[in-house]
Every structure is written in C-alpha cells, then in structure tokens.
C-alpha cells in the first residue's frame, strides 16, 4: 500500500545540520605566564559506526602507542518522535516547482517529527570540558534555528529549531587508582524537523490563460459585455522556472453574450 | 627495647645485599624501558588539575614486567568516541637504581618537574620517587604508558626495607603534549597522533609573466563622484564610445560594505581604450543599487598604460602578488592591482592609475609567490630617475648593440644595453625608488670590457662598479658599506658589484648582498663607477638588473622544532616536513593560533623560511575527526543567507 519509493534523506540532513553546529569548536591551553601554549580544534564525529571500520581506521597499526587522543566530541541520534503540537491538515497540499525536471509538483504538507540528539564531550581536563560547554550553551535559549534545505529538488527550506533539553556530566574521579578519571559531558537536544512524503507530478495547477470580460455597468444581469481581456504566457509552453513574457489581447465584443465558465463557451 | 637485641631484623649490609641481588636480577630478566618525567606548564588551583605539560627528558631504566594481563581481548573497546585502548602493564623497577640514577638528574633540572608557574602544588619532594602521571616508554610494541599508581611496599619490608617500586601503568591518553626527548624512537610514537594541522608552502612555483600596452588618447584617471548604495551584486560599468576607433575602455566596479550598506569602493580599468579626445561618460548600472556616478579624464597625446595582458598566469601565489610597473622617467608611474584564482594562479591585473608620460611600454613586475624578484630591463630609460640633486644618468647612456670588436666598437650582445661609456669624471645610473625590504641581493647581467670585445678593460683604482643607496627621505647617496648614520660598518669593498679584473668578456651575472641597513621602503639605488680614463676607456654594459630575495623558500624544517609565522606571531611544532618538486608542506601540532596565507614561516632551529600557500586548521591525521566532512555536507544544505538583524554569531 505504501511502497512508492522516495527518499529525501531528511533524517540524514538533520543529522548533518545538527553536527555542523559543533564542528568548529576550539580549546586553548596556556603556559604558566598566561601565553597561549596551544589551540586545538575539538574533533567531532557521528558516534555510531561500523565496528570493523573503527578498528581498521583508528588502529591501522595494531600496536597503537596511545589509548586515545583527546578532547573528542561525538553526537548521535537517539529518538524519533511524532510532534503533534505542530500538526497541520493532512489533506493540505502546496505546489512547488521541481528544479530537476522543471515540472510542477504537488506536495503534501510535511509531517512534524522531533529527532532527539545527544552530544557527548570527552576531555582529559575539566577545564577543557568547561571551555567547550561554555562555547555551546549561550547559543541555545533554549533553541537555535537552522534553515535547512530539506528537499532540495523543490527548494523546500525549513527553519529547524534545535532545542537544548538537558545537560548532564559524569566525572568519575572517585575510586581506586587502578581506574582512570573519566570526564564526559552529555548534552541532549531535540531537532524539530519535518518529514516529507512522496512528491508527485501534478497536471493541474499552472494557469496558462487569464480572461476577463468587461461590462459597461456593474449590474451584469442588465448590462452587456463590451470587451474581453486575455493574457497568455509567451511562449505558451513556458514553465514556472523559465524566463517568459505575456501576450495581452483586448477584443471588442458587441455580441451581447455571456461567458459560461462551466461550459467554457459564450452563450 | 622490646625486641631481642641479639637478632637483627635486617642489617644495612644485608639490605644492600638484597638490593644488589634485585638489581642484578632486574638487569638479567628485565626489559629496558624509558622513564619520561612530566614537566608542568600550568596548574589550576581551583578545579585542581595540571592543565598543560610536556615530556622532554628520558631515562633508560631496566624494569621487570610483572604481568601483562591488561593485554586481554577486551583491552580495545568501541566507545561513543571511537576506539579506545586500555592496555595495562605492571612493572617493577629497582628503588636504588631510581634514586641513584634518575633523581640526581631531576634535581638538576628546574626542581625536576617545574617548567612554568607552579602554584599550590609543590612537587619538589616528589622527585625522590617515581610519580603518577609520568610516562613509561615500553619498547615492546612501542607504546607510551602513563603511571597510574606507584606501590613501594610490596614485597612488604623484607629485612626491614623495601627495594623495588611497582608501577601500575595504562596506555597514555594523548592531548598534544610535547614529547621531545631527542630519542627519535620515542618522539615519533606520537608523530601521527593528536590534532595535526596541515600547511602547504610555496615551493618551486612558476612566476607569472605580464606585459603592458600603452596608448594615447586613453583613459587617464577615474574619479568616483558618488559611491551609490544598495548594491547586492557587482554593477556593470560602461564607457561611451571613443571619438575615433572602436577600442572602448572597460572597467569593473569593486564594491564594499560600510555599515551594512553595499556601495562602490572604486573602479578598476581593465582596458584604458584609445581614441578618446574628449572624456567619455561612465555609466554604472545594475547590481541592485543606485546613485553611483563617476567621471574620468583622458591622457591626450601622451602615452598612458592602457592594458596589461597576462601571458603566463604562473603558479603558487598564496595572496595576490604586488604589481610594480616601470616608471616613465618623467611623468606619473602607473599602478595596478592583481587578483588570484582559487588554485593560486594569477587571475587578472587591473589598472588603478594608468600613469602618463610613457615613451615605451613599461615592464610589469609581479612580486610574490615562489619568487620574489623585481626584474628591471636596464636598457629602458624609464628605469632611471634623478635623485638627491643628481641626474638620473651621468656618463652612462643606453647604447645600441655594438660591433663587439676592439676597445670602442661597443658590445655585441644582440640588444641595446646600459653603457658606462661617457666622459664624466665619475659615472652613475640612478634607479627609480623601490620597496626593497624583502630583497637580499641585487643581481646585474653585465658585460665587462676586455680590450677586444668592444669595450676597454676597467683596470685602475676606483674603476670598479659599486652600489650606493639613498634611504627614503635621505639627502645624499652612500655606499652600502656605510649605514644611514654615516658609519662605515662594513668593509669598504662590500659595495663592489664588479671588481677590477672580474668578468669573462661575455654577458654574465654579478650579484651583491644588500645589507639590512641599506634596504627598506622607498629606497633608491645607484650603480656607481668612481673613476674612468675617458670615454674610450673602462666600459661596462648592463642588460638587466634584478632585486632578489634569497632567504625565502630555502631550508629544511626539523622534527619537533618550533616554527613562527612572521606576521601572525603564531607558533607551532613541526611534525613532518615534505619538500618535493611538486609539493612542499608541513604537518604541525601544538598550534598557538592560526597562520595566514602569504606569511613567512621561520624555523627556530633550522632557520628554514617558506611562505604559506594554504593553511588548513582541520585535523590532518586523526581519522576520528569528521569536522571537515560534516561541514562540507552541511554547506550544501544549510541556508546561511538569512542573517540575524540583531547581530551575527
């Protein structure tokens, strides 16, 4: 019943959009005299990955000399949930021009979904974590809007608020000296995105002719029409994305007839 | 006394014996590891952590591997943050060996571990024992372990003393700590780890070549009377047709944004046109803005630079090169500006001021990129100008190609040349002023008379060719061996370009170092021959004069040396340096900031100097980091065009 193939990569695009918020965060370390020792861009990746790929990528030499490089951030999608508060009419549609085939498409209103994300920050020092978190939090009050081209073929750009829901952190500094201290901050977000269904061609919708009959009086029951104005695109085959003009025509009609929209003829 | 005094619980001699036996066993059954003490840059006394440290000492020490249970199958685990290794080992080292071998060294180096300002923590006492946080380089597998815990009472007081330390170690978590022990095997363990940025440098690129065309009745100067407002794209500039001919002038508008209003900054000529006997009208249209208006003047019968064509766009220009156009001698020197393409080639040269008074097409020098050379054709009178009350040329003139025979036939070198042939007591040629800050040598292509090649041999005192200079705002020329204050600080012969007896009778290059006191912005140079017998004698012929920078683009950066950007002041530590014919690049860690394209990078130990072609702040080696991939994909789908009216993030 459903199986009409379509894939707009909207969830993937939402993941990318969320990730790019954090791809340029740096931390600094100082020397004792206050001068900068180093500035490090914090590595960011989408957390889940194929296990064998992680192994061969990060441990290409089996005797890797160190445990891990820090600081690192990872993010992952944790939930997908329907958001009834943003529901729109299920039968409502809009028309859009598809730039790939230059045809008019009928698009049903998108379905609002909330996608939950987790951003994890793993640092060696508490100060590193504080630097990172402090560079993130002021932008969320509690949301930050991104304008994302969700369905590029129809140029459908939507504002997607990314809402910061909660901040947790784990600092395992207690315990025996056989275990390491682990400093992990976890920030949870919700991206309020929209999922689009199949986008179909539509035969209707394009107005290719405008016609207006002009009467000598506002009472059209008694008055008879005098002139007719028509306008058609030039060329007539023009599509919405084309650069086209109009051909306008005024016709003198002293024939005392009326136009019937239903029969589409003068009677 | 509570214990039986007739039985010893371990005499010192017994303890020494046990310690010696242990030391011997460790040397027989142990493994040679390296102990790397931690040096601290900075501590935070509130949130109580050591914020930055380095490891630049190493002590080889024998250690017994108690167990390697930490090499179990679950020692490599998949985490949210990629792969994390948790290999652990336990090592036993001799207490005596540590105290007698390592401690004295640590006492000698800045209290052992201090490097920067240490606040509350006082580690001075800690150098007596191995410390948690120090590193062990374990040669089997070439790994770096961090000491997590030091146990000193196991075995428990045999004969009343303890003889060993047991070190519990786990693989090091690396955060760009400098590891610079001078032992290559250790230092290179982290060569490819951590945050490493990548920089391509200007290597052996191709120098762009451009030629200028001059014309009469062309555009002389453009005045922008109204810079307009509201431009969303670059407007079109059109000139009305010339009074005669079809060579209509063309120009492009450069827009700028002032207080969020996009207006026109200036108009740059791409073609000065010709046939304009009266000033054309300039129309600025399109671009979504209004109000811009400009007028111009025309050059009349005098020649101005009307076009500059690029015959070779060159390669490896990190920033737009400086364009220097030869002087007309008398008149106004033209100025131009260049732009580069995204692949670092010369894109265009546009005329800012077409100049006036040219008698022939001037040279176009393109300075920047891989070669910093200002090339001047010596046989062009535009290259010379009067200065400090002296005429441009004295006893010197542009000579046609000669016969190449005898002492006075003139040099036969296939072209005209600047000839030192006149009758003046001393001969000189004064070059037009330049900014010589970045130049280190002057090289001239010259022929010296040898009595049979068309010129006579300069062979008497003061007949050599020397280099004099005039500093910006100076009143008289000085030898480059004399500083601007008038002190003779170099040997009197340091200004000799062509010494007596030099030269092989044919065209060849002669070069001279320009000392630092004799170069700068607005400096003027003079080729000077102090004496000559008369016009029949002591001849030089010069075809070309080059100012060159010889210190950029040479040297080899050394692993772990600190490099500094001359403009940005940013420093970083070299991880790797590649220098091949097709690529010159640096991998860097511990960056203190960002380097800018076009600046010169100097190595602290190697003194290597190269210009940055492109600097990439994304982590180069770390396979975990996807920052760049995420940003690239996001750029295709996120709309950044809508700005926040309340300010930008």
Question: What's the topology here?
Answer:
The complex is a heterodimer of chains A (267) and B (649).
Chain A: H1 10-20, E1 26-30, E2 36-41, E3 43-46, H2 51-58, E4 68-69, E5 72-82, E6 93-98, E7 103-108, E8 111-123, H3 126-136, E9 143-151, E10 156-171, E11 183-195, E12 200-201, E13 210-215, E14 225-234, E15 245-252, E16 259-260, E17 265-266
Parallel strand pairs in A: 3-5
Antiparallel strand pairs in A: 1-2, 5-8, 6-7, 7-12, 8-11, 9-10, 10-11, 13-14, 14-15, 16-17
Chain B: H1 12-29, E1 31-36, E2 39-44, E3 49-55, E4 59-67, E5 76-79, E6 82-85, E7 88-94, H2 95-108, E8 114-117, E9 135-138, E10 143-151, E11 164-171, E12 173-174, E13 178-179, H3 184-187, E14 197-201, E15 209-215, E16 219-229, E17 236-239, E18 250-258, E19 261-271, E20 282-285, E21 290-298, E22 304-312, E23 322-325, E24 335-340, E25 346-353, E26 364-367, E27 373-377, E28 393-394, E29 396-399, E30 417-420, E31 427-430, E32 441-448, E33 465-470, E34 478-479, E35 496-498, E36 508-513, E37 524-529, E38 540-548, E39 562-565, E40 571-579, E41 584-589, E42 600-603, E43 609-616, H4 627-637
Parallel strand pairs in B: 2-8, 3-13
Antiparallel strand pairs in B: 1-4, 1-9, 2-3, 4-7, 5-6, 7-11, 9-10, 10-11, 14-41, 14-43, 15-22, 16-21, 17-18, 17-20, 18-19, 23-26, 24-25, 27-38, 28-31, 29-30, 30-38, 31-37, 32-36, 32-38, 33-34, 33-35, 33-37, 39-40, 39-42, 40-41, 42-43
Structure report:
The complex is a heterodimer of chains A (267) and B (649). Chain A is mostly beta strands and 267 residues long. Chain A has helices at 10-20, 51-58, 126-136; strands at 26-30, 36-41, 43-46, 68-69, 72-82, 93-98, 103-108, 111-123, 143-151, 156-171, 183-195, 200-201, 210-215, 225-234, 245-252, 259-260, 265-266. In chain A, the strands form five sheets. A six-stranded mixed beta sheet of chain A has the order 3-5-8-11-10-9. In chain A, strands 6-7-12 form a three-stranded antiparallel beta sheet, with no helix packed on it. Chain A has a three-stranded antiparallel beta sheet with strand order 13-14-15, with no helix packed on it. The longest helix of chain A has 11 residues, at 10-20. The radius of gyration of chain A is 30 Å and the shape is elongated. Chain A starts with 9 loop residues before the first helix and ends with a strand. Chain B is 7% helix and 39% strand. Mean pLDDT of chain B is 86; it is low at 110-122. Chains A and B meet through helix 1, strand 2, strand 3, helix 2 and strand 4 of A and strand 2, strand 3, strand 6, strand 8 and strand 10 of B. Strand 4 (68-69) of chain A pairs parallel with strand 12 of chain B, so a sheet runs across the interface.
């Amino acid at each position: 019943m459903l199986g009409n193939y379509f894939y707009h990569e909207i969830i993937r695009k939402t993941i990318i959009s969320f990730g790019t918020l954090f791809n340029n965060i740096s931390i600094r370390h100082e020397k004792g005299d206050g001068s900068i020792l180093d500035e490090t861009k914090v590595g960011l990746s989408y957390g889940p990955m194929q296990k064998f790929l992680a192994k061969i990528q990060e441990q290409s030499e089996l005797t890797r000399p160190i445990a891990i490089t820090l600081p690192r951030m990872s993010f992952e999608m944790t939930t997908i949930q329907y958001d009834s508060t943003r529901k729109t009419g299920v039968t409502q549609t809009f028309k859009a021009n598809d730039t790939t085939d230059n045809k008019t498409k009928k698009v049903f209103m998108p379905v609002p979904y909330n996608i939950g994300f987790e951003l994890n920050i793993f640092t060696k020092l508490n100060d590193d974590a504080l630097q990172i978190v402090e560079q993130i939090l002021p932008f969320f009050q509690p949301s930050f809007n991104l304008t994302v081209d969700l369905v590029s073929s129809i140029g459908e750009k939507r504002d997607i608020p990314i809402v910061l829901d909660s901040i947790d952190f784990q600092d395992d500094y207690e315990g025996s000296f056989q275990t390491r201290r682990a400093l992990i901050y976890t920030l949870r977000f919700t991206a309020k995105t929209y999922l689009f269904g199949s986008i179909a061609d539509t035969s209707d919708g394009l107005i290719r002719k405008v016609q207006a009959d002009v009467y000598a009086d506002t009472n059209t029951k008694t008055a008879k029409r005098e002139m007719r104005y028509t306008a058609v695109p030039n060329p007539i085959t023009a599509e919405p994305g084309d650069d086209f003009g109009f051909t306008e025509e005024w016709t003198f009609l002293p024939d005392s007839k009326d136009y019937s929209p239903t029969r589409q003829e003068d009677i | 006394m509570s214990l039986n005094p007739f039985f010893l619980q371990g005499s010192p001699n017994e303890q020494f014996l046990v310690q010696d036996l242990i030391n011997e066993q460790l040397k027989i059954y142990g493994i040679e590891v390296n102990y790397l003490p931690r040096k601290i840059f900075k501590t935070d006394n509130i949130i109580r952590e050591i914020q930055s440290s380095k490891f630049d000492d190493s002590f080889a020490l024998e250690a017994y591997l108690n167990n390697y249970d930490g090499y179990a199958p679950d020692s490599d685990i998949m985490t949210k943050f990629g792969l994390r290794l948790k290999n652990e080992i336990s090592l036993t080292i001799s207490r005596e060996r540590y105290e007698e071998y390592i401690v004295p060294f640590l006492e000698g180096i800045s209290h052992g571990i201090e490097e920067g300002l240490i606040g509350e923590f006082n580690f001075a006492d800690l150098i007596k024992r191995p410390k948690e946080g120090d590193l062990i380089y374990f040669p089997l597998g070439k790994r770096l372990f961090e000491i997590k815990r030091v146990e000193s009472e196991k075995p428990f007081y045999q004969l009343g003393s303890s003889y060993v330390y047991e070190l519990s170690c786990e693989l090091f978590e690396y955060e760009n700590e400098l590891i610079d022990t001078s032992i290559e095997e250790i230092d290179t363990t982290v060569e490819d780890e951590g945050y490493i940025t990548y920089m391509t440098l200007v290597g052996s690129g191709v120098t762009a070549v451009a030629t200028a065309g001059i014309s009469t009745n062309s555009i002389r100067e453009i005045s922008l009377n109204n810079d307009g407002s509201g431009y969303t794209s670059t407007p079109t500039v059109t000139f009305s047709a010339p009074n005669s001919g079809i060579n209509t002038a063309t120009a492009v508008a450069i827009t700028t944004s002032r207080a969020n209003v996009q207006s026109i900054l200036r108009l740059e000529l791409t073609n000065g046109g010709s046939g304009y006997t009266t000033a054309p009208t300039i129309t600025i249209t399109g671009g979504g803005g209004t109000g811009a208006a400009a007028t111009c003047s025309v050059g009349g019968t005098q020649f101005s630079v009307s076009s500059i064509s690029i015959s070779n766009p060159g390669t490896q220009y990190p920033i737009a090169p400086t364009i220097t156009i030869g002087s007309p001698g008398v008149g106004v020197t033209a100025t131009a500006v260049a732009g580069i393409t995204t692949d670092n080639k010369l894109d265009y040269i546009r005329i800012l001021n077409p100049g006036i008074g040219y008698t022939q097409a001037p040279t176009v020098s393109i300075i920047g990129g891989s070669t910093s050379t200002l090339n001047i054709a010596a046989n062009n009178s535009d290259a010379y100008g009067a200065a400090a009350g002296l005429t441009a040329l004295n006893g010197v003139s542009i000579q046609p190609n000669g016969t190449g025979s005898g002492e006075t036939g003139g040099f036969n070198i296939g072209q005209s040349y600047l000839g030192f042939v006149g009758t003046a007591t001393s001969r000189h040629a004064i070059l037009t002023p330049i900014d010589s800050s970045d130049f280190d040598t002057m090289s001239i292509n010259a022929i010296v008379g040898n009595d049979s090649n068309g010129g006579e041999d300069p062979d008497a005192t003061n007949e050599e060719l020397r280099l004099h200079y005039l500093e910006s705002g100076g009143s008289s020329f000085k030898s480059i061996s004399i500083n601007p204050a008038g002190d003779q600080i170099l040997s009197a012969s340091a200004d000799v370009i062509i010494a007596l007896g030099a030269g092989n009778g044919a065209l060849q290059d002669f070069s001279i170092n320009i000392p630092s006191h004799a170069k700068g912005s607005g400096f003027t140079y003079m080729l000077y021959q102090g004496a000559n017998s008369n016009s029949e004698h002591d001849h030089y012929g010069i075809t070309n004069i080059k100012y060159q920078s010889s210190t950029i683009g040479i040297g080899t950066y050394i692993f772990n040396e600190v490099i500094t950007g001359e403009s940005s002041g940013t420093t970083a530590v070299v991880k790797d340096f590649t220098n091949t014919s097709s690529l010159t690049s640096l991998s860097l860690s511990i960056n203190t900031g960002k380097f800018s394209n076009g600046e010169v990078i100097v190595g602290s130990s190697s003194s290597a100097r190269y210009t940055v072609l492109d600097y990439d702040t994304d982590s180069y080696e770390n396979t975990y980091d996807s920052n760049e991939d995420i940003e690239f994909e996001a750029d295709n789908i996120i709309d950044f065009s809508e700005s926040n009216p309340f300010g930008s993030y």
